[in-house]
């Protein structure tokens, strides 16, 4: 039995709370994961997991073994990484998740540069606007925007995004250009909602250094950035979004910024990973590279 591999499989099963999900994230057949866990329990002569059709939990022995396995695997990672000097190229598989807008506007346009610099890193990029569960879904790190409230994750600040309010010329021809916040009651907005946003019907502004939230009527709400932008381009209402995400539309005249003297406060962007996870050379390379990308973005 390959005990190191068995430990890795056991940790992934516990973290994802599913044999099937663990198999998917490890790239193994589900039957192989089941066989490895059965073989591990036979080798240890103890049951590690309580299984039922709806639930998977650790036995007391399984919980003790889980924490020891995590310590051992972190030590193995550290020992292997110590062999690589600065001249060595980081390698391995790295799965990252990020919002669709950031992926399309910031990360993916420069991904060729990353591949050229780190040819031995296999990068798996998950793109969606929902907050993923890193442990359950086998994700190494995520990029998130806005305030952070997950103490189970280590946060590395990448930078901040400048936000603005904009609309399509066709919409402004119909409704007029708002010149102050009171005008917004005569307008409508495309609303954006998510599982972390309580008031998706508000637009946010800064006036004399003070943040102000203004409810704006609307007839539609979406939870995906590309669709949010598309509805604005179609003239359905005002939106607020990071400048980098709509820069091409602004240059082309397809969107127009309004209330530029009352722009929302910049929104922080962070990279997060679990507290217990060892920062591999591949992850460190990605952190450094994305930090540089957002630093250059701030400088523009």
Describe the structure.
The protein has helices spanning 3-16, 19-26, 30-44, 60-81, 100-107, 111-117, 134-137, 169-175, 225-233, 243-251, 281-299, and strands at residues 49-51, 56-58, 92-98, 121-127, 141-145, 153-161, 163-167, 191-192, 202-207, 210-215, 221-222, 239-242, 256-258, 267-274. A 5-stranded mixed beta sheet has the order 4-3-5-14-6. It contains 11 helices and 14 strands. 28% of the residues are buried. Helix 1 (3-16) crosses helix 2. It is elongated, with a radius of gyration of 23 Å. The chain has 3 domains: 3-81, Winged helix-like DNA-binding domain superfamily/Winged helix DNA-binding domain (Arc Repressor Mutant, subunit A); 92-161 and 268-299, Periplasmic binding protein-like II (D-Maltodextrin-Binding Protein, domain 2, 3-Layer(aba) Sandwich), CATH 3.40.190; 163-265, 3-Layer(aba) Sandwich (D-Maltodextrin-Binding Protein, domain 2). The termini are far apart. With 300 residues, the protein is of the alpha/beta class.
Strand and helix layout:
Blueprint: H1 3-16, H2 19-26, H3 30-44, E1 49-51, E2 56-58, H4 60-81, E3 92-98, H5 100-107, H6 111-117, E4 121-127, H7 134-137, E5 141-145, E6 153-161, E7 163-167, H8 169-175, E8 191-192, E9 202-207, E10 210-215, E11 221-222, H9 225-233, E12 239-242, H10 243-251, E13 256-258, E14 267-274, H11 281-299
Parallel strand pairs: 3-4, 3-5, 8-11
Antiparallel strand pairs: 1-2, 5-14, 6-14, 7-12, 7-13, 9-10
Helix pairs in contact: 1-2, 1-3, 1-4, 2-3
